[in-house]
């Protein structure tokens, strides 16, 4: 993989009052298998057992951790695992790909090599 290259998958659930809840997934294929076989542990595909909110700013808003009271009000529970299940089942998937970066691998060394002779200038 090229330096900096990454794929990020998140699930977005919009509540009836307009709040946006976000959960990050590392392995989408395993998550799809989990939807058919709930015996697969969520730890195998969830990035972190944390639910984020964007304060009604959509999927691109600033991410803050959802408070227990916010989760209670929306989902009837503040148990992260139960809320994550709802978000994965009822939310929408959004995948972002970040391109890699090419270039010199060691900029500090580049200035000290002249005509193939290290240390001479």
From TrEMBL:
Record protein name field: Ribosome maturation protein SDO1/SBDS N-terminal domain-containing protein
The organism of origin for this protein: Apiospora phragmitis
Origin superkingdom: Eukaryota
Record domain Ribosome maturation protein SDO1/SBDS N-terminal: where: 8-97
Compositional bias ranges of the Polar residues kind: 112-121
InterPro entries: Ribosome_mat_SBDS_N_sf, SDO1/SBDS_N
Pfam family for this entry, one: SBDS_N
Disordered as annotated region, ranges: 90-121
């Amino acid at each position: 993989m090229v330096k900096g290259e990454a794929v990020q998958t998140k699930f977005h659930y919009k509540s009836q009052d307009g709040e946006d809840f976000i959960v990050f997934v590392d392995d989408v294929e395993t998550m799809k298998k989990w939807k058919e076989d709930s015996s697969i542990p969520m730890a195998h595909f969830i990035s972190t057992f944390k639910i984020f909110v964007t304060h009604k700013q959509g999927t691109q808003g600033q991410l803050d951790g959802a408070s227990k009271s916010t989760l209670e009000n929306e989902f009837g529970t503040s148990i992260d695992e139960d809320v994550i299940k709802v978000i994965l089942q009822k939310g929408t998937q959004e995948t972002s790909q970040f391109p890699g970066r090419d270039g010199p691998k060691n900029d500090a060394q580049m200035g000290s090599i002249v005509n193939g002779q290290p240390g001479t200038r």
